[in-house]
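Why does this matter for the project? Reviewers at the last site visit asked to see concrete outputs rather than summary tables. In response, this paragraph embeds two records directly. Each consists of the residue sequence and, immediately after it, the corresponding structure tokens. Nothing has been edited or filtered.
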Amino acid sequence: MDFFSFLRATPRKRHQSGLAPKEVEKYLENLCIDMEDDPLSFWQTNSVQYPVLSKLAIKYLTITSSSASVVRLFSLAGKMDSAQTDAV
């Protein structure tokens, strides 16, 4: 079974050359990097070998995480709890 058969079945392809599936196959054949290694450095170093994958990796690995929405939620819940306690 061809892992990328679903890509050929789609009516519109973003990469007409089929470069992305070949890159993924080549990437999966290689060994994993060590846990201590920096994944961004890996993708920067291998951007010539994996041009499509490196763009995706850099795009998604550089998303900054934030707990601000969670902090706001707990703050609001605390205010609601305080308001209920004060009302009783």
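We now turn to the second protein, recorded in exactly the same manner.
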Amino acid sequence: MGCASIPLGQSPPEDDNTQCSGRGDCLNGTCLCEIRYSGDECSGFNLPYHAGISSVFYFVAFISLVQLMICIIAEYQRLKQPSFLRACRLTTQKLLYFFVFIASVLRGAYFTTPETLQPAWVSYLMSAYYPLVMTCASLVVCLWAEIFHLRDIRWERSQFLSKSFLGFLAFNLLPYSLFLAEIAYSHLFSGRSTNFFNGCYAALLLIVVIFFLIYGVEVFFKVRGGFVYDFGTVPNSENVNASQLHQSRFGLLSQAIMLIVIIGFLTSETLGDFWKKKVPVYSRNWHDIVFRLAEVGVALWFPCCLWNSMAPEQLWILNPRKLLTRQIDPVAGCSGAGGLDWEKGFTIQHWAKTIIIVTLMCITGAGAWVIIQLNEDSFVRVLVAGFAIIIGYILFKMLGENTVTAIERAKVSSINIVTSASDLHSASTSGGSGVHEKLNTICQDVECK
């Protein structure tokens, strides 16, 4: 059996789900099914699609698990007194392998069976992928932020975050809290759309991408940061490894582009109820395929960039010193002039303000989405959407200013005024009060800023 053709110039009723089981379009009496389904009336499921997508994600999970095991074994062999627990100590490299493994397994499990045969709890696996990806991306951002701000740390050695750990922990509470809220919402309001949460994931992922690009450009494009040890002098072409530089830049941009694509698709999924049934089925199929490819690419990027499990010092993502052909030695006698005091810039107050701003952004988006869903007046919908965009822009600007202020505060706190004993003695005899007045003025200016 096929489907009943619709006369030219007419369209089927919006509530008519008899055409192709509501999973495709009728074209000349034949059902053109969505990519997940097959059959004359789109009543079956597309086995090659589900098997292909799930197999790719399982393959990424397998690669990540193998890399994690190799990393642990290599660290075990390097220990002077071998211990399995010490070999399993928490490092950035191991945590990235682990979260990519979990994210890929959950994605593969979701696509193993078609939606019609899945139990209710399997639908949660679809959303669980995004908090895990955000954890991986934010971990890389925090690592690069420390590489940029901090000095005198051996980045070529496997380790975990230091100064930015609390910030990393505070941010990751947001996506996982959002995921739990989605589960609670689906239980309380069974049958209602949860597409709104996709928009929230997109907003949080956008914040990660912005900082991913900020610190990625500073470290891998401008080649600046604590690992350079040159106090503001940009390395020239003679002491920069061109091959590693191009690899890092390509890797940075490729991941940023794929994350931006996912943000766009998540945003479109948020508004899926308004547009999906109004576009041809082949457009929806291309949308689904590109979306899945972007998700695979984002997960696969981490194992590719962390390919050398046994020697993390050879990976540009973990050790930016690979960008330099020779180590630039720090200038003697100025140990504090080039570093940043991270804690004085990124304080508890800063992170609290950041969480408040991000929460308000989510609440604004949620409120606008609820009003748009409950109101059928197109003028009211456009007005609410406009106000939500304006408020979101203001909050996003506040978030940027808050971060810039914290960075400037960290820079100012790192200033050391070095004065010799003879200079202090002469200043005290000739006009020591003037020196103290200048210092007080500087302190007041910094505090006011």
